[in-house]
Amino acid sequence: MESEGEVKYRIISWDNKLLNNLPQKEPAGPLYNIDGPEGSVRRLHFPHCEIGKGKEKLTVAHVADGKVEIIQPQTVTDTHVIINIQSLSPFGLIFPRSETSIRAQVLLFYKKKTEHCKSKLNIHLLPANVPVKEVQKQHKSYTYIDTTSTCDLTPRRKYRLRYTNTVNTDNTVLQPKVVKFQRDCGPNYHPTFEILNIEAAEVTLILSEKKGKEVWTRFVDLITEPNSTIPDIAGADFVDEHRETLIQRFPSVMEFADCLIGKNMISTEMYENIKAKSTPQDKMRELYTCLDSVGRAAKQEFHNILEMNYSCLVSELGELSVHLVNT
């Protein structure tokens, strides 16, 4: 920030007419309409979902006056694309059309059976850089089931969902049987699959490629009351917002890594990758890579540790969040 002020953003629709002028390109994330005082923002960080060398092909589309300007990133990390800007208007990531896998997420929304409504479990397959809270806003009558949602999916490849449960009933309906995964970047987020008339207390969901390779499997408890809201929005957003500062200033990376592995939030491989880094900053960057991979519950846990053991740092960063000032 170069001056004090309030910056707001919202997700809007990509204009297909503009995309038609970009042959062999497709959205690689939501289109953000950013509004704030002129000249107040000079740099933007966009979350991305590319894996491997795919991130090197990311660029940013700047939409203004019915035209698209292609901006080459200043820096591309494993999780974000960073650009310098001169003015505010819609921005969004774009990527050459390809058949390579991306980081994705499986989001679950559940509605209990009532006198006037059948039970329903909605399953959303989305790119990993779609904000969970944006999806939840459109499905407020459902309860969000927080689970380890990360997986790798390939755009335009077909996937099949199967499920097993403790109650067999002829009334249970899964639809559709097979879908083609698409980069759904909003602003509307419709269910990919839905299971109707679930009477079981527990269900195991199995997502696989059409040819049979399993890509994501989870056990879901439908008796335990799911979260009707996403409890980790504030804490997880705090961790995302202050990423660069925490990478430079958080002193005890392995303390948090020990906590995460103790709660089965990260794998042994992830823990060893963090431990192997030579400096606290590199350990913290690797830890953030793990956090982005395993989901928002882990980021909330990080925030909880910060509040408990580093309250002065949290207060200092919180004051910066209230007023956007020049750093």
UniProtKB/TrEMBL annotation:
Keyword Cytoplasm belongs to the record: yes
Domain of life where this protein originates: Eukaryota
Domain CARD intervals: 237-321
GO BP terms in the entry: inflammatory response; innate immune response; regulation of apoptotic process
Keyword entries, A-Z: Cytoplasm, Immunity, Inflammatory response, Innate immunity
Subcellular localization(s) per the UniProt record: Cytoplasm, Cytosol
Name recorded for this polypeptide: FIIND domain-containing protein
The keyword Chloroplast is assigned to this record: no
One Pfam family per UniProt: FIIND
Chief site of localization: cytoplasm
GO CC aspect terms: cytosol
Matches recorded under CDD domains: CARD_ASC_NALP1
Domain FIIND: 1-234
Signal peptide boundaries: none
SUPFAM superfamilies listed in its UniProt record: DEATH domain
Record organism: Hemibagrus wyckioides
